[in-house]
């Protein structure tokens, strides 16, 4: 009987667990260890952050689902990974009792989600800083409370400055911030308060609508339409100001310090700011048989797990080398260790990086949340099933092959709401396969705004909650 | 270069019958490509 241990129960870890539990959970031991005992549907936190959805509607308890799917659940925070052959185990502290627990494994999936590196930008974040975030459940609730308090001030006639975007020069997840800014706009319009707010999009993207994936390009009526023009139209239409090519370096009470591509330094004042932090890998200790630190064999300096990618290529070369992107998400030093979701180390950025004259790198990191995370979780699970059954891992899907769909909400009303629906294939441009300057399948890639997107977003919330609860037919719903 | 949505574009964005059609088309498109991915 093989022991399979999954660290994390987000989109990637939970997807992997459901496939493994359903397919081999009766014969083998499948365990999930997570410091949270609930699954969180993150994409709906943009609605929580403006008070349009109750936070409890975005979460459910994991254990009842795992009990049905032959998965053991351990509610504990992982601290050490001991990967050397013969004695492979993970040490974790149980949440509540604090008791140390040892979890042995034959196969390990590292999918704990990101460490929100608020410390990377002095003054950033809701705990020790002055800005808000929608990147965790308590943060989304705190953001909602602060936003609603701001609305009360506006109702009394006060004019306010709202800044939404990225809070670190290397931050990712611009899509979530974009959703939040347009939802704030729509909510203020509905409340009759829009004229009381100056809203600014502040981002590290090289161009508007880049989203860390080098933008989206589609063919419409014989013409090329780029996400840059599209998002510019959205912002112009909504009266949202924008400042891109900007890395936030420090935050003080009511003041955001930044540098831009030209190396200029500036300060932007705010009354309310929601800025996405830099993401890092979880700070687990990787310990060898002799007690030595072997982290460099498993993770990069940022804590992301090294997998079957080609690392170290300069950006121009990487952009022409789609095969540099990992496809099996298997660690080369320890082939029984896989990484899924944000935990795997990408070989480099998708968008063109930039370093200004002050040597500050301003470059969005590759997003690998949502559909990408779920897809990788499935690929990893299928490969472990192969290995457990004595076969070579045969499943693969790199981000240069992967399709991703993103529905960016712009108001949740099913009557007059809206959303931008983005479909791109592949997520990372493959200029060898797709012979156009964008490296994308222009037939599949799609960019559209309208009420249908609001319906899609509503439908996705409910179908994904169904899927992640492993209700009947869950495998038919794509990742 | 597009800088603002035209009146016609805004009309179609909220025209319910057209949006129902787009909803069906988008679902089919996403489902088809996602299912292809699942076979890998």
Explain this structure:
The complex is a heterodimer of chains A (479) and B (40). Chain A has a domain at 3-116 and 279-388: FAD/NAD(P)-binding domain. In chain A, helix 1 (11-24) packs parallel to helix 9. Chain A is built from ten helices and 26 strands. Chain A has helices at residues 11-24, 45-48, 62-68, 137-155, 174-191, 227-238, 295-298, 315-319, 371-388, 451-468, and strands at residues 3-7, 29-34, 38-40, 59-61, 71-82, 89-94, 100-104, 107-110, 115-117, 160-166, 197-202, 217-220, 223-226, 241-243, 246-252, 255-260, 265-269, 272-276, 278-280, 285-286, 337-339, 354-355, 361-362, 404-409, 419-424, 446-450. The mean pLDDT of chain A is 95. With 479 residues, chain A is of the alpha/beta class. In chain A, a hairpin with a 6-residue loop joins strand 5 and strand 6 (89-94). In chain A, strands 1, 2, 5, 6, 7, 8, 20 and 21 form an eight-stranded mixed sheet that branches. With 40 residues, chain B is mainly α. Chain B has one domain (8-38). The N and C termini of chain B lie far apart (39 Å). The mean pLDDT of chain B is 84. Classes of the chains: A alpha/beta (479), B mainly alpha (40). The interface between A and B is medium-sized, with 37 and 25 residues.
* Helix content range of chain A: 10-25%
Report, as a whole number of angstroms, the end-to-end distance of chain A. Answer: 28 Å
Structural class by secondary-structure content of chain A: alpha/beta
- Return residue spans of chain B where pLDDT drops below 50 for at least 5 consecutive residues: none
What is the CA-CA span between the terminal residues of chain B? 39 Å
Got a strand count of chain B?
0
Helix content of chain B: over 70%
Largest sheet of chain B: none
Strand content of chain A: 25-35%
The number of helical elements of chain B comes to 2
| Biggest β-sheet strands, sense, barrel of chain A | 8 strands, mixed
Query: How much beta of chain B, percentage-wise?
Result: under 5%
In terms of per-residue confidence, which ranges of chain A show pLDDT below 50 for 5 or more consecutive residues? none
Shape of chain A: globular
What's the shape of chain B? elongated
Overall radius of gyration of chain B:
15 Å
